[in-house]
Amino acid sequence: MKIAATAQVSAILLLLAVNCLAATPYHDFLLKDGRSFRGRIVDYDQHSDIVSIERADKRLVKTSPTVFDEADQVHIKEWHMVRCFKSESLFKVSAARHSFKGTRKAQSAGQLGLSSIYVHLTRYSIILGNRSSIKLRNISVEYRIYYSFKKYKGVKSGKAYVAGIEPRSKKELETIEIITRGFLGNKTDVDGIWIRITLPLSNGREVMREYCLPDNLSKHRNWAVSDVTVGIQELEACDEKLIHLHGRSHACVIRMCGDHA
Fold first, then answer.
1. How many angstroms separate the CA atoms of 64 and 51, rounded?
2. Distance, CA of 240 to CA of 110 (rounded, Å)
3. Which of 13, 41, 111, 224 could form a disulfide bond with 155, CB atoms 3.0-4.6 angstroms apart?
4. 146 with 193: CB under 8 angstroms?
5. Model pTM?
6. 142 pLDDT more than 60
7. Does residue 253 register a pLDDT over 60?
8. Torsion sign, CA atoms 236, 237, 240, 244
9. Segment 72-92 mean pLDDT
């Protein structure tokens, strides 16, 4: 029984390895002496600067990238960069939620000037950890923060650009804030954050990673193409208006600004 189970596990691992290899497309490699062959990269060792290529005839070739023309040298380097970027162990994406108290400026009807009011806020830290031995460059980060007010669903979006993350280092980004409880006592629940990280390639294509907190968020919400504002978040605009919370009017006119006191 134990031998059969071990054999089954080995077969599964072999199948996964074959599937990963099959996912790497064939490429026409051009040598500096004018010869060419068709194959696909299966490994690259940055320390020894040796690339392993499986030819179309299944022969394995191990050589230095410098034997190829400049375009293929870029192809090899990018293959290695994409492998590092897509690896959860070499490029770790995570997020942490932070709840705290802050202030906003408001003006009530019949009052002159702005006064500070206390609100409860939530934001996220996005942590990009580069555990690989190469620098990752020109990373674009987009995120959606999903929240609920009573039966209504809202979303706030944001984005950031990271010029580079050095080897074995990390970058930490802060998102915009969600007001979870305001001076009117209305409570907003933050449901989670969905992050998309994009790495550009030289041929105009892009490679993307996704991360959700909680990890099942994408099963319940769709990636939003635009913001949906509900509840107390409606007060973030810096212009005077009567508060209408989905049909429920409050007898005060305020001016709410998004700056921190």
1. 6
2. 13
3. 224
4. yes
5. 0.76
6. yes
7. no
8. negative
9. 96
